[in-house]
Amino acid sequence: MSGQFEVLSPWAEVGPISLAGISPRLADLTGKKIGLFANGKRAAAPMLAAVEQELKQRFDNLTFTRFVRTANLEVAETGDRARFEQWIRDVDAIVLAVGD
Q1: What is the pTM of this model?
Q2: How many Å apart are CA 57 and CA 21, to the nearest integer?
Q3: How far apart are CA 67 and CA 37, in angstroms?
Q4: For residue 8, what pLDDT is reported?
Q5: Which 3-state string (H, E, C) describes the chain?
Q6: Distance in angstroms (rounded) separating the CA atoms of residues 82 and 62
Q7: pLDDT tens digits, 47-94
């Protein structure tokens, strides 16, 4: 053995990704369908319940739908991907809670 080794970088060499910016913001939430996304951690559901109650007090005619990620994976890596993509198409806005 020569006592030398080659150090490799864990970073892949990829082309630049163009920036897309953030989604346009809604002017008003009245009458909108709000998606509540919980990451499956302990505090996520209670946090979203509090957000739901606060939004109901501030805006009229809101409806809510929930999506809970149960696996410790990105949604894209699970069998829930198609259901998640349909869910995001069916809501006007999403509130995400990371329950750490």
Answers
A1: 0.74
A2: 31
A3: 5
A4: 81
A5: CCCCCCCCCCCCCCCCCCCCCCCCCCCCCCCCEEEEEECCCCCHHHHHHHHHHHHHHHCCCCEEEEEECCCCCCHHHCCCHHHHHHHHHCCCEEEEECCC
A6: 25
A7: 999 999 999 999 999 999 999 876 666 776 777 888 889 999 999 999
Distance, in Å, from the CA atom of 48 to the CA atom of 98, rounded to the nearest integer, reads 10
Length, in residues, of the chain: 100
Buried b (16+ CB within 10 A) or exposed e, 47-58: bbeeebeebeee
Residues in contact with 60: Cβ distance below 8 Å, sequence separation at least 6, in sequence order: 30, 31
Structure token pair of residue 43: 């505090």
Whether the per-residue pLDDT at 37 is higher than 70: the answer is yes
